[in-house]
Specification:
This protein is about 40% helix and about 20% strand. By secondary structure, it is an alpha+beta fold. It starts with 9 loop residues before the first strand and ends with a helix. The protein has a two-stranded antiparallel ribbon. Strands 3-4 form a two-stranded antiparallel ribbon.
Length: about 80
C-alpha cells in the first residue's frame, strides 16, 4: 500500500526529479529561485531538503567581511608563514 503523500521519481534529462506540489511550495515559502540544502541520512534511506534562508547567509557574509577587515594585518602575517 502506498502512503497518501508518497512521491514518485521521474526521469528529467540525465537526472531524476521529484515534484513539489503548489501547496507544499506555498507552505515552505519556496519558488524556483530558492536554494535548498540536501541531506542524506547515514542509513541512506532518507533524503531531506532544508530551505536556505538568504538573510542568514547574508549575515554570515557580512560577519566574515567585517572580521577579515578588522583582522587584515593578522591575515597578512599568516599568509607569509
Amino acid at each position: 500500500m502506498i502512503a497518501k503523500n508518497a512521491k514518485h521519481i521521474f526521469k528529467n534529462g540525465n537526472s531524476y526529479a521529484i515534484r513539489i506540489s503548489k501547496d507544499d511550495r506555498k507552505q515552505l515559502g519556496i519558488n524556483e529561485s530558492t536554494d535548498l540544502i540536501k541531506t542524506i541520512s547515514p542509513d541512506h534511506k532518507t533524503i531531506s531538503f532544508t530551505v536556505v534562508n538568504p538573510n542568514e547567509d547574508q549575515a554570515v557574509d557580512d560577519f566574515a567581511k567585517k572580521f577579515m577587515a578588522d583582522h587584515k594585518k593578522a591575515f597578512e602575517v599568516l599568509k607569509d608563514m
